[in-house]
Amino acid sequence: MRLIDERYLLHPEYGYPRMTDWLREKENEVSYKRVARLMRTMGLQAITPGPHTSKPASGHKIYPYLLRNVEIERVNQVWSTDITYIPRRNGYMYLAAVIDWRSRYVLSWELSSTMDSLFCIDALECALRQGTPEIFNTDQGAQFTSSGFTGVLLDKEITISMDGRGRALDNVFIERLWWSVKYEKIYPQSYSDGHSLHQGLSSYFEYYNNERKHSALDKRTPVEVFKEGALST
User: Fold this and answer.
1) Burial of 27 (0-12, 13-18, 19+ CB in 10 A)
2) Within this chain, do residues 191 and 102 fall inside the same structural domain, yes or no?
3) pLDDT digit string (tens) for 91-118?
4) pTM for this prediction
């Protein structure tokens, strides 16, 4: 699963057939069925729509994607969230985060041992204590299409946008965040348990928001851009 995760970050177009072939080239004896099962467990799917993309939960309302060709000009214009697999030395956990698209500021994050909707709702409610976005974007996963999650947004009259099926790049800003988190913090270290992982992520997001300068932000930090933008609205 660690190998699959690293490869997927570099090649999000890989579905389970190509991932299996690549693992076999690296002398891993795996079947297509096993790799498909592991990728489902990790919540991974190829970015190209196809017959193996994940399906939203039956009966959940799906909202249209509203952000194609939209210019992101201000803080709190668009927020988004996602879930990613986080490997540990003896197991794994899932990380959910909420990010502001203009500033790249991570408003909140939560860890969970399961991919249920509760920790995603916790992350959302924590983020909303810092402001209110005009549009909130997610994928079509069951966690985000659940009435518990969408209800929080609708109660605050926030417009909901959802990625097209299989299109991870519709949520490109948080995909870049996952790449940074994993290659700068998770992969260089080996966390033995949830407590040490939580401590490591706490220090990383503190650094990411307050010290890590972004070229796309004119060499400013996310917190600088977010606070400046929030004050001007």
Assistant:
1) exposed
2) yes
3) 899 999 999 999 999 999 999 999 999 9
4) 0.85
